[in-house]
């Protein structure tokens, strides 16, 4: 049910945190997201990957209206999200829901399952109590739980069941977009598969779009239509999931994929040997000019140290911000060259 017009369109997004000095005055700004461009169509899943600290949750929290955009635009349908800061009106908040990583801390332990699942209905609709209860039963059935679970508290459930409850609550208002921030990384492998299948089913049945944040590239490839790759606040590559996974165009995406363990032990041994023979790679470092990946990149060229690459079109779809593709048309200006508001 993917259509062409974007549901969410993010252009040149900046997210900035301000440090605090001892006197409580604002210290130096830290730009966690530097000019990101992303879009998600209705019913589409966009996987956002990158190492810890690259800015994925900062984008997610800005889309959810938990953190204000410091610059750029974010359109959701006809709504200007960036202009609303953290004060989304109810009609917008209803349409964008979230499921977070840790089902042990994201559910209020003093509430019953019925209260948790019907809370969004209580806040955002005029439904009466019995109607809400009926809806709670339907929602629990959607996530393979049942009426008998209504009166129980979160501590009476396993991690996977708690994540089902969180998903039921996120579905309550029939949102158009759900932000999934590491939704299965706290779960064991077989429970992960069950939750992923559940998310799949709900997406196909209800036409919801997902912004899926995860470290696990194999998982993201499995569930996403498109993948965007972040490095130090920049989107360095974006494109159809299969193309990014099988033919990564940015050296950083390639490095991320090389870190995914191979099932074949012989191939895994060969890869380990090749890695040992390769020169040591520096830790990530914020460069003041040029490409953010320059000090780790095996293909670094002189211009990478002075110029930020624009996003070049890539064969098979999508873009890569890397001068290795400079023979292709640039479709977006270099990210991070604009100024945060
Ligand atoms: N509230 C905050 N105040 C100051 N700095 C922050 C804040 N939240 C995040 N940061 C910083 O912003 C950068 C990006 O963080 P973010 O959580 O968005 O990354 P991430 O890619 O989601 O990481 P992870 O995968 O570990 O969750 C990090 O350097 C982080 O320390």
UniProtKB/TrEMBL annotation:
What SUPFAM superfamilies does the database record attribute to this sequence? Answer: P-loop containing nucleoside triphosphate hydrolases
Q: Which InterPro entries match?
A: AAA+_ATPase (IPR003593), ABC_transp_ATP-bind (IPR050319), ABC_transporter-like_ATP-bd (IPR003439), ABC_transporter-like_CS (IPR017871), Oligopep_ABC_C (IPR013563), P-loop_NTPase (IPR027417)
What is the protein's membrane topology class? Peripheral membrane protein
Q: What is its main location?
A: membrane
Does this UniProt record's set of keywords contain Secreted?
Answer: no
One GO biological process term: transmembrane transport
Under Gene3D superfamilies, the record lists: P-loop containing nucleotide triphosphate hydrolases
Q: Does the keyword Transport apply?
A: yes
Listed A to Z, the keywords are: ATP-binding, Nucleotide-binding, Transport
Compartmental location = Cell inner membrane
Q: Which family does it belong to?
A: Belongs to the ABC transporter superfamily.
Q: Which NCBIfam families match?
A: oligo_HPY (TIGR01727)
This chain's protein is named ABC transporter ATP-binding protein
Species this chain originates from:
Neoaquamicrobium microcysteis
């Amino acid at each position: 049910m993917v259509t062409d017009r974007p549901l969410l369109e993010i252009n040149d997004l900046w997210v900035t945190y301000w440090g605090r000095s001892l006197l409580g005055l604002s210290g130096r700004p830290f730009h966690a997201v530097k000019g990101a461009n992303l879009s998600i169509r209705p019913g589409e899943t966009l996987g956002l990957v990158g190492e810890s600290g690259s800015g994925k949750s900062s984008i997610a929290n800005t889309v959810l209206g938990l953190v204000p955009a410091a610059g750029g635009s974010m359109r959701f349908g006809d709504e200007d999200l960036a202009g609303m800061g953290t004060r989304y009106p109810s009609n917008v908040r209803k349409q964008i829901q979230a499921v977070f990583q840790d089902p042990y801390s994201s559910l209020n332990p003093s509430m019953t399952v019925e209260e948790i699942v019907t809370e969004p209905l209580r806040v955002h609709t005029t439904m009466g109590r019995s109607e809400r209860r009926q809806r709670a039963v339907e929602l629990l059935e959607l996530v393979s739980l049942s009426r008998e679970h209504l009166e129980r508290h979160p501590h009476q459930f396993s991690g996977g069941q708690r994540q089902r409850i969180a998903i039921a609550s996120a579905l309550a208002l029939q949102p158009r977009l759900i932000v999934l921030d590491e939704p299965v990384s706290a779960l064991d492998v077989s429970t992960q598969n069950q939750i992923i299948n559940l998310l799949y089913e709900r997406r196909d049945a209800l036409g919801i779009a997902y912004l899926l944040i995860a470290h696990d590239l194999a998982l993201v490839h499995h569930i996403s239509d498109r993948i965007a790759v972040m490095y130090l606040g920049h989107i360095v590559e974006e494109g159809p999931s299969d193309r990014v996974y099988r033919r990564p165009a940015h050296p950083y995406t390639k490095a991320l994929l090389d870190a995914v363990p191979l099932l074949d032990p012989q191939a895994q041994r060969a890869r380990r040997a090749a890695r040992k023979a390769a020169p040591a790679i520096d830790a990530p470092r914020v460069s003041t000019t040029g490409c953010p990946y320059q000090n780790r990149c095996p293909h670094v060229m002189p211009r990478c140290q002075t110029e930020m690459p624009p996003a070049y079109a890539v064969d098979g779809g999508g873009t890569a911000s890397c001068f290795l593709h400079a023979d292709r048309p640039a479709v977006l200006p270099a990210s991070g060259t604009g100024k945060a508001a």
